[in-house]
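Problem 3 from the worked examples.
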Amino acid sequence: MFPEITHDDVFRLETDRLWLRWPRAADADEIRRHVGDPDVALMTTSIPHPYEPHDADAFILSARQENAVGEGLHLVVTPKSRPNEPIGLVSLHGADRRGTATLGFWLGKPYWGQGYTTEAAKALIDLAFGITSLDRIHSSARPDNASSLRVHEKLGFSRIGRGKLPAPARGGEIEVEQFELKRGEAHTVFGARRPRFSST
């Protein structure tokens, strides 16, 4: 799905306030600290709670492997002033033959309400539509997750219905609002320009 320029862990994306980069082994403690909060984990389908010490290590390894072969792109979100301190994550993964991938994100609770998730996701979406052949992006949010619903609206997603998704970390299925964003409809942070990205 993603071209070779994203397959190396020196790749990063820049926004006004943030760096988005590959997760590293050194990020494990900060990731554990943020997603160990039930208010973060329980709004997702895949983050276990309680979050055990080995869970962050396993996630980082899996994300790096997927990034390295271009099957997805998982990027930790860091403030520009603290590039070694992950405060969240945005990802695109699971591309199918119809040119559709899935957006996922989480943000540490101390950073809620400041627009970081929208800023980071806009950059990743802009990149994806700029350098891949994706035609659309799917995403979902729990109906009671008001902040996630707002993020989808800000990004330009359209609601396509309500349904249930497998949620192995929640012990079964959960009900979600389902969203779709088609190429050309994204409310991107860079407008018509492609995002700045670096491989050095």
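Problem 4, a separate protein:
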Amino acid sequence: MKATGVVVEHNPFHNGHFYHIKESRKKTAADIIIAVMSGNFLQRGEPALVDKWCRTEMALKAGVDIVIELPYVFATAQASDFARGAITLLEAMECDAFCFGSEEGTIEPFTRSYEVLTTQQEAYQNSIKQYMNLGLSYPKALNEAYADITKDLNFSFVDLSKPNNILGYHYIEAAFHMKARIQPVTIQRIVANYHDDVDQNQSIASATGIRKALFEEGSLEALEKFMPQTSLDQLLKWKDSVSVFGSWQQFWPLLRHTIIRSSIQDLASFAEVTEGIEHLIYEAAKESETFEEFMIRVKSKRYTWTRIQRMLTHIYTGFKWETLKEHPKPTYLRVLGMTQNGQKYLSEKKKNLSLPLVSRVAATKDSLLEIDIRASDLYQLGLQSSKINTPVGMDYRKPPIIL
């Protein structure tokens, strides 16, 4: 059976994701689509709208055959580490190809950019440092340095100012660095860009736009045209049973408590907290009644919104620098769900998989997995309100979903 991998968050699963799954299967002639999906905290440093089980069911009902969890350490990391973790898992799952959506739409500019940046790595890194010394944020310094390296070369290179292109580049970089046999494929992102608001004249919207519309308007029914019915049904079911959706606004009281309770030294020990920003985080938390107020106080030219949110994610979950350094690569394959077709694939491949397959958490001892379990419990606590008491320990009680 030929397998193609995709790297996803599905926050939530919408028509653009449906198109991605369908085109990935078609373009690679795949029998099986395997999704590596972030857990309950995401790469942009925020809680997922709904938990990983709800999002797994959305994916399985819309064409994915197997969902593997991307461990917290990689799911909440900067783009290069996020990509390295995801490609490692897809390679371990014996995928023949991985397919990512991009603004570029063709693979050749990605491989050219990789070749140039690899052969001119020293000049590239020096240029990045120079731009950061001028006060630019890391992403902006990357873009300026990249422009300097490629400006005099008479070839087409990928635009690394676009969010999906950036991730796509890092997927290819990860695959080439590990000399993986898995082959990169890309498809054109269509209609909506990453940060676009919803457009009622279209049937595809970005996940960012969908979440924004949901929080501003409070109506799931208004989003019906942007997602498969199976996804809408899952969201309606979630709203009935949990009543609130994951966001930093919802989690703010607990996050604020965690920050103010911590010493400055404690805050500095959490992953991604650097250069004394812990002082600003502490003072802003004391003065801010809402998450929005807090972010306005902390945001600066040097630190992007996303990078600050990743710091906050690690503060909230208690994830420290020393723990990050102890886990350079994934050590297991955690199955969140599968179809019958996916079960058949696993039965054929399980003896050849290069990482152990985890379906029962209680039977597995792994420090990387323990981080995931704690993050899941803290996610559930963040959803609690006066109306809802969400249970912790779901990772121990919830078996893989089988459709």
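Solution to problem 4. Residues 48 and 399 are 20 Å apart (CA to CA). DSSP finds 19 helices and eight strands in the chain.
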